[in-house]
């Protein structure tokens, strides 16, 4: 794990760890005032969480459940205790000519390139293993547990792919889940 190059972000977490915040909102107020006083843009919670985790791991600060909760991005994503991981199959033709189904060049049938899961699939060249790994890492960096996931295979043409592709795709998804966190996506996937 690499700590942010901005020493202000490091200082923000070190100072925040010394304050007994009563609730996550108080941390957010502190973050705003700290950034205003130092005339810096507010860092993302994922960036701060990465710094926080490294400082806790190296025992430079003590863990704080309030800080961890405050830095949790989009808490609703795992409120049920399950993290959703959506992956897309490679682009393919579909025999259906459904009038309501969007069709975009080089995209799986019925999905558009501006959707988050689709953008992640493009970034990972539609590789099932890398899609799962990068999504798990993103969830983890944002403070979500990745111990229990719901895997959603997107791309409306899955059943039209050859059985060998279907089997390999699903096997790669499960392998990525089983390998994580022992293996991390390469830095180019982050």
Per the principal axes of the C-alpha atoms, what is the gross shape? elongated
How many individual domains?
2
Give a count of the beta strands, DSSP E runs of length 2 or more: 2
Number of helices: 7
Largest sheet geometry? 2 strands, parallel
Radius of gyration, in Å, reads 20 Å
Low-confidence stretches: 185-190
Give me the strand/helix succession: HHHHEHHEH
- The neighbouring-strand order within the major sheet is 1-2
What does this molecule look like?
By secondary structure, the chain is mainly alpha-helical. It folds into two domains: 7-71; 82-179, no CATH class. Helices cover 44% and strands 6% of the residues. It contains seven helices and two strands; from the N terminus they run ααααβααβα. The chain has a two-stranded parallel sheet with strand order 1-2.
Write the layout of secondary structure elements.
Layout lengths: L6 H12 L5 H14 L7 H13 L7 H6 L12 E6 L27 H8 L4 H14 L7 E6 L8 H17 L11
Parallel strand pairs: 1-2
């Amino acid at each position: 794990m690499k700590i942010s190059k901005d020493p202000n972000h490091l200082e923000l977490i070190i100072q925040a760890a010394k304050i007994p915040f009563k609730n996550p909102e108080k941390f957010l107020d502190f973050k705003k005032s700290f950034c205003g006083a130092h005339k810096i843009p507010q860092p993302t919670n994922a960036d701060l969480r990465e710094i926080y985790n490294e400082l806790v791991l190296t025992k430079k600060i003590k863990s704080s459940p309030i800080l961890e909760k405050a830095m949790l991005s989009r808490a609703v994503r795992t409120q049920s205790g399950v993290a959703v991981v959506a992956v897309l199959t490679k682009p393919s033709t579909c025999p259906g000519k459904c009038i309501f189904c969007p069709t975009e060049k080089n995209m799986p049938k019925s999905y558009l390139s501006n959707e988050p899961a689709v953008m992640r699939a493009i970034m990972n060249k539609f590789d099932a293993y890398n899609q799962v790994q990068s999504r798990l890492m993103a969830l983890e960096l944002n403070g979500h547990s990745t111990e229990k996931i719901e895997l959603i295979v997107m791309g409306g043409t899955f059943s039209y792919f050859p059985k060998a592709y279907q089997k390999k795709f699903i096997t790669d998804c499960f392998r990525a889940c089983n390998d994580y966190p022992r293996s991390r996506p390469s830095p180019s996937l982050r």
